[in-house]
Amino acid sequence: MGYFEGRNCAHSLIPRMARWGASAVTVHGRTRQQRYSKAADWDYVQQCVREVPDDLQLVGNGDIFSYTEYGKHIQACGSKLATCMIARGALVKVRK
Questions:
Q1: What is the DSSP letter of 46?
Q2: 96 belongs to a structural domain
Q3: DSSP label at 57?
Q4: Among 30, 47, 54, 83, which is disulfide-ready with 34 (CB 3.0 to 4.6 Å)?
Q5: What does the pLDDT look like over 34-83, one tens digit per residue?
Q6: Which pLDDT value is given to residue 83?
Q7: Which residue from 25, 26, 31 is spatially nearest to 9, judged by alpha carbons?
């Protein structure tokens, strides 16, 4: 999302990245400053998805711990979200 909490900037960089020749961008739903102290902001990831140019694939990331959560985010973000990346969630065993 950006470096500082409350100062999201990824949405403004995504169109530039497309012009620079990127074919895909991953947006993580937290800032660098937040680290793992807050839940991923998937509303902001969805905002980025709405603004992504058609020739750029956007990958969402943050707090995905199951296939069910993956499917929820894919459905909520619509067809412009290429996929979701599972990072730390792949290493955590969730108990219910």
A1: H
A2: no
A3: E
A4: 30
A5: 676 677 888 999 999 998 998 899 999 888 888 888 999 999 988 889 99
A6: 92
A7: 31
Check if the beta carbon of residue 28 is closer than 8 Å to that of residue 40.
yes
Looking at the structure of the chain, the number of domains it has is: 1
Per-residue pLDDT at 93 = 63
Q: Give CA angle at 71 (8, 35), nearest 5°.
A: 35
Q: Is the CB of residue 81 less than 8 Å from the CB of residue 57?
A: no
The H or E element containing residue 47 is helix 42-51
Q: Is 62 contained in some domain?
A: yes
pTM score of the predicted model: 0.80
Single-letter code of the amino acid located at 62: G
Residues 6+ positions from 23 with CB-CB distance below 8 Å: 55, 56, 57
Residue 84 has pLDDT above 80, yes or no: yes
Residues of the domain holding 62: 10-90
